[in-house]
Amino acid sequence: MDDMLKEFVVEALDLATNVEEHLLSLERNPQDMNTLNAVFRSFHTIKGGAGFMNLTAMVSACHLTENLFDALRTGQVPVTPEAIEAALEASGFVADQLTALNNGTPPEQLSTMPKALETMLTDAIESKGGTTPKAPVPQVKAVTPVSASESIAPATPQDSLDWEAYFRAVTPEGTLPEVAGATIQISATKEESDAVKSSLLNADIKQNAPVKEESIRIDAVKLNALLEVAGESVQAANQAAVLLEKLSQFKFDGQAAPLMSALTETLTRASRYSTELQRATLATRMQPVGRLFQKFPRLVRELARDLGKEVDLNISGAETEVDRVVVDSLYDPLVHMLRNALDHGIETGEERLQKNKSQRAAISLKAWQEASSVMIEVSDDGKGMDAQRLREKAISKGLINSHDARTDDEAFQLVFLPGFSTKEVASSVSGRGVGMDVVKTAVERHRGAIRIASELGKGTTFLIRLPIELSIVPTMLVRTDGASLALPMATVQRVVELPEAFESVGGQPVLRDLGRPLPVRSLGKILGYTPSSERVGIVIAAPSPYILSVDSVDGTADLVIKPLTCITTPGITGTARSAEGELVLVISLSFLIDGCKVRDRLTA
């Protein structure tokens, strides 16, 4: 893909995504003229660029949709569900074409506009199926797809380009005044073309246009390389600081003393700047989750319609920022969770009325920041999950024994085990478990964790916890059997001193912390190290809190994490280097939240 086409695809994809959001908003508020105008401008802009790139099918779809919204915003055609549906189909077709281009499909291999889409748009323009009489629509005479040259070119032998459409397509938004008049002509007159051509030579416009360029696009590979270098520079600065601290133990006389002082000041400044460089680089990868959330209203709307259910999707916290890699990787898991909520969690309208619920169900999608983590919650007010039936199903399939998953929280986590097939779960416990192991794997790949809370008859909530920044993790450094390990601070509550002897409950050592008995688990023993004298305990914040025993605590540090790529070790999510240059193993967040249960980790 050449650079010009690539730039068009990126910009047009953003416009296409916003169009869907505007259309769903317009469905709720048909009289919103600002939204009507915004949709018209989006299709007009995409059409101009597509015409310049000779993308005929895209131009045809945009041209008819542009005509539809020109008629809608001038009141010649009413805003009906049929019109919204036709526009959504057109938006989907344009998005599919852009996605295909983005994935490397040559422009000449793109599909043509479906006849059904053309018919839908034409019927909407002519108000077929509407509740009000059909109003005349000036300037819309043909229903056949319009070629790229027809849509952007004036019918004159002297010129073959609609210079105004092209100029507006490549000029930053907001630079030029809005086009006057209620309608946009399909072709420009010779005089209009000459006027726009002359504007291209206008010095004022040339000088003012660049001022609007407030951002640039950088290849993700280059950005990742920059982040890698920034992380290594911080690591080197930290190691230099440790060496400097060791040097300061020696006495420097004469000319060495001012040199040592200058070296200390220089290294301190270098360390500060390298840290700021890393933070600034990380900030460039942060994106609001709203970029991800805005794709779901249409998905929920269409699936609810197919299932014959009435559902509202409520979104909040869309401004919460998270690493771009996380945003991109969460789409499929969230789609899966929303589909399960709609298909299996939400009852039919009749069932809800029988249970004294509102016939219109609600699904909530929330995001917020909590310490160094981003929390994403998907909840519904549907059937809920039956913990006892989950246990029975897991035992009958041989996935657990009768002593496992004693609490409801542990039983809900069983849906993440491979083997809970669609039919078996859906027929007995409201349908969760369809490929949910894939969802958990996707979350844990980015050092996250997922939990389930549910109340039978009231609904179900999935809560995902993810680090805000993937490369840097605030940790507590501990030791066991001489090995250096790092625990994510997101799970650490406090450090306690352990006695030589513990109380025992069911053969499990227990220590009272703030009046509550908590089980004590040896980190070294769980990870396979030689048992040693562990006299320090870390209280772990988990759905079922417990104390993790270690030999010692070496302090806290923000570590640059390197993921494990060649091997998979239960409980270990990656490696890092301490300020002293020592190799540190980073414990998985989900492993800690799940209670450091190696068997569960291996199974799930």
TrEMBL record:
**Keywords of this protein's UniProt record, alphabetized?**
Kinase, Phosphoprotein, Transferase, Two-component regulatory system
- Please name the InterPro entries in this protein's record: Bact_Chemotaxis_CheA, CheA-like_dim, CheA-like_homodim_sf, CheW-like_dom_sf, CheW-lke_dom, HATPase_C_sf, HATPase_dom, His_kinase_dom
What GO biological process terms does the UniProt entry carry, in alphabetical order?
chemotaxis
| Domain HPt: residue ranges | 1-101
CDD domains for the chain: HATPase_CheA-like, HPT
Any single GO CC term annotated in Swiss-Prot or TrEMBL for this entry: cytoplasm
Specify the species: Undibacterium oligocarboniphilum
Cross-referenced Pfam families: CheW (PF01584), H-kinase_dim (PF02895), HATPase_c (PF02518), Hpt (PF01627)
Tell me the SMART domains matching this sequence: CheW (SM00260), H-kinase_dim (SM01231), HATPase_c (SM00387), HPT (SM00073)
Q: MF terms per GO, please?
A: phosphorelay sensor kinase activity
Which top-rank group of organisms is this from? Bacteria
Q: What is its EC number?
A: 2.7.13.3
Q: Where are the transmembrane segments?
A: none
Matching SUPFAM superfamilies: ATPase domain of HSP90 chaperone/DNA topoisomerase II/histidine kinase, CheW-like, Histidine-containing phosphotransfer domain, HPT domain
Q: What is this protein called?
A: Chemotaxis protein CheA
Q: Which PROSITE patterns match?
A: HIS_KIN, HPT
Residues annotated as domain Histidine kinase: 260-470
